[in-house]
């Protein structure tokens, strides 16, 4: 485990001097003797301490795929693909079409579009349903005068990212029952929206929701951003009858951070493309996705559908078990594996204790983990609970041992 050096102004200026001395032409002029100066070391990803140079200290991700924590790390193959993509010019339209075709084939969808994230996929999907391929409408939104301007959503499915839908200038119409959903559909209805992670909070099931849309001839969109694994989910929702499905590229798929996926009906995916980059006068031009991300996500999806998911699951379980074992003997501590029912459906460690015996709350333990060396970032949760949750699936090999030892140390030290 390599620990990064903490940033100080002293080591920064020294390092900066050393870094520039190696490459400046003057170094060659000053060298004496016959031998030419040694070439600067190659800038491999391992050799360049990008975060240290900025004074930003990385941490062990014991949380999961949280955007604010930079979510996931790409596999080496994706990193290589992105670097290769960055070295040649291509027509973005040709690349979008080819990558979309490849991904659609891999996941059994009619069509696919690489976006800059799941949020961008929501905006482009909504724009597709409001504007279609009509150039005047594409230029006009978010002014929806004369266009279909309503999206129907279950009240319990309202969430922060619905801003990505509202960006298109539509009005969200809230319903609770199937009867209300059917009654809400009219001439102004552009789309029906479903949030997969809120499946257990609404009265209308996914299957019913997709069916109502099909019967009424209104497109349906499901946000499944954080819902792979399981890998089958890449196919489940289009099969279920949803017109469009949005996934994050930078979460479970382990693609580039600024990538996402819109899957579904060809006419709507084509329209979504026209409502975004590289089309300058479109609502989602602000969500540009570059050649590096398009190639990177395509490679990530190839790797993801091919990988041994059972072996990966067993590895996650072994990591959880190591953490559970490490805290087993500490007074009042109970630990077990849990798998969230929706979103991030992977093995986690859940650790609880009696606050009378160990006078700490989650926020205290989290702070101690953050302040240690190396830094560790646990899964967020209620600050005032005698409980700590640990996500193991975004860890690097060996991280779980460091995390297990550190949690055991913190809890033991406070145990009465
Ligand atoms: C993470 C997330 C998003 C946003 O995904 P990005 O890929 O970061 O744009 C949208 N919806 C849900 C449910 C999410 O979990």
Explain what you see.
This protein is of the alpha/beta class. The chain has 2 domains: 232 residues, Type I PLP-dependent aspartate aminotransferase-like (Major domain) (Aspartate Aminotransferase, domain 2), CATH 3.40.640; 107 residues, Aspartate Aminotransferase, domain 1 (Alpha-Beta Complex), CATH 3.90.1150. The protein is 41% helix and 14% strand. The protein has 16 helices and 12 strands. The chain has a 7-stranded mixed β-sheet, with helices on both faces. Strands 9-10-12 form a 3-stranded antiparallel β-sheet. Strands 1-11 form a two-stranded parallel ribbon. Strand 5, helix 10 and strand 6 form a beta-alpha-beta unit. Helix 4 runs antiparallel to helix 13. The longest helix has 19 residues. The radius of gyration is 25 Å and the shape is globular. It starts with 8 loop residues before the first helix and ends with a helix. The N terminus is likely disordered. Pyridoxal-5'-phosphate (PLP) binds next to helix 6. The site of pyridoxal-5'-phosphate has 12 residues, from helix 6.
Q: Bin the helical content.
A: 40-55%
Low-confidence blocks of residues:
1-33
The level 1 CATH classification of the largest domain is Alpha Beta
Ligands (ions, cofactors included): pyridoxal-5'-phosphate
Number of structural domains: 2
CATH superfamily of the largest domain: Type I PLP-dependent aspartate aminotransferase-like (Major domain)
What general form does the structure show? Answer: globular
Gross CATH architecture of the largest domain: 3-Layer(aba) Sandwich
- Count of runs of 4 or more consecutive helical residues: 16
Order of H and E elements:
HHHEHHEHHEHEHEHEHEEHHHEEHEEH
Strand content: 5-15%
Give the biggest sheet: 7 strands, mixed
């Amino acid at each position: 485990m390599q620990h990064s050096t903490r940033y100080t102004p002293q080591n920064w200026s020294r390092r900066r001097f050393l870094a520039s001395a190696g490459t400046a032409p003057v170094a060659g002029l000053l060298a004496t003797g016959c031998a030419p100066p040694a070439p600067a070391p190659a800038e491999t990803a391992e050799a360049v301490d990008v975060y240290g140079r900025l004074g930003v200290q990385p941490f062990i991700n014991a949380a999961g795929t949280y955007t604010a924590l930079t979510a996931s790390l790409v596999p080496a193959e994706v990193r290589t693909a992105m670097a290769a993509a960055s070295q040649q010019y291509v027509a973005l339209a040709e690349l979008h079409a080819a990558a979309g075709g490849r991904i659609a084939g891999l996941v059994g969808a009619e069509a696919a579009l690489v976006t800059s994230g799941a949020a961008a996929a929501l905006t482009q999907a909504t724009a597709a349903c409001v504007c279609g391929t009509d150039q005047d409408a594409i230029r006009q939104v978010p002014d929806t005068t004369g266009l279909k301007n309503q999206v129907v959503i279950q009240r319990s499915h309202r969430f922060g990212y619905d801003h990505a839908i509202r960006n298109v200038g539509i009005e969200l119409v809230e319903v609770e029952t199937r009867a209300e959903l059917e009654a809400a559909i009219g001439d102004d209805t552009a789309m029906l929206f479903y949030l997969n992670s809120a499946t257990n909070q609404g009265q209308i099931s996914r299957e019913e929701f997709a069916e109502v849309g099909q019967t009424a001839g209104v497109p349906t969109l499901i946000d499944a951003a954080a819902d792979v694994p399981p890998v089958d989910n890449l196919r489940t929702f289009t099969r279920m009858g949803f017109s469009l499905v949005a996934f994050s590229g930078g979460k479970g798929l382990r693609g580039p951070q600024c990538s996402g996926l819109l899957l579904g009906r060809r006419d709507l995916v084509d329209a979504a493309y026209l409502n975004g980059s590289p089309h300058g006068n479109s609502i989602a031009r602000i969500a540009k996705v570059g050649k590096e991300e398009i190639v990177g996500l395509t490679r990530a999806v190839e790797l993801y559908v091919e990988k041994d998911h059972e072996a990966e699951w067993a590895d996650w379980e072994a990591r959880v078990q190591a953490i559970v074992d490490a805290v087993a003997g500490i007074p009042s501590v109970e630990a077990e594996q849990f798998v969230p029912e929706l979103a991030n459906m992977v093995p986690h460690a859940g650790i609880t204790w009696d606050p009378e015996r160990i006078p700490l709350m989650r926020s205290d333990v989290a702070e101690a983990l953050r302040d240690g060396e190396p830094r560790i970032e646990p899964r967020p949760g209620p600050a005032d609970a005698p409980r700590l949750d640990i996500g193991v699936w975004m860890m690097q090999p060996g991280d779980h041992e460091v995390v297990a030892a550190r949690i055991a140390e913190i809890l033991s030290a406070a145990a009465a």
